[in-house]
Design goal:
Rieske Iron-sulfur Protein; 3-stranded antiparallel sheet; 10 strands; iron-sulfur; Rieske_2Fe-2S; Rieske (2Fe-2S) protein; 2 iron, 2 sulfur cluster binding
């Protein structure tokens, strides 16, 4: 069953920055881009590297370990070249909303 959880105060997440919410069984990377908040699992599906350590280029978050890129809006892998050895190497995404000055995630 999904539920909304409060991750952070709205003012603590700056534009183009990544902040990690640590839940009971998941770490979720939150990114503010164009005044909208995106949330995705903080784990690259390739070898589990934390995406928080990566770099953001537009709407693409590049994993620091092997440079795989993921669209923060959809979780889709944008580097589907020959080196990608997984059938669907996407990252799980989560719905977000801002409520009473707080950022909430649907987990």
């Amino acid at each position: 069953m999904s539920e909304w959880v409060t991750a952070f105060e709205k003012d603590t997440l700056s534009e183009d920055k990544i902040k990690v919410y640590k839940g009971q069984d998941k770490q979720i990377a939150l990114i503010r881009k164009a005044d909208r908040v995106y949330a995705l699992l903080n784990e690259c599906p390739h070898e589990g590297c934390p995406l928080k350590s990566g770099t953001l280029d537009g709407y693409v978050l590049k994993c620091a370990c092997h440079n795989w890129g993921f669209d923060i809006r959809t979780g889709e892998n944008v580097d589907t070249g020959e080196y990608v050895d997984m059938e669907d190497p996407r990252v799980e995404t989560f719905e977000t909303k801002e409520n009473d000055g707080k950022i909430e995630i649907l987990i």
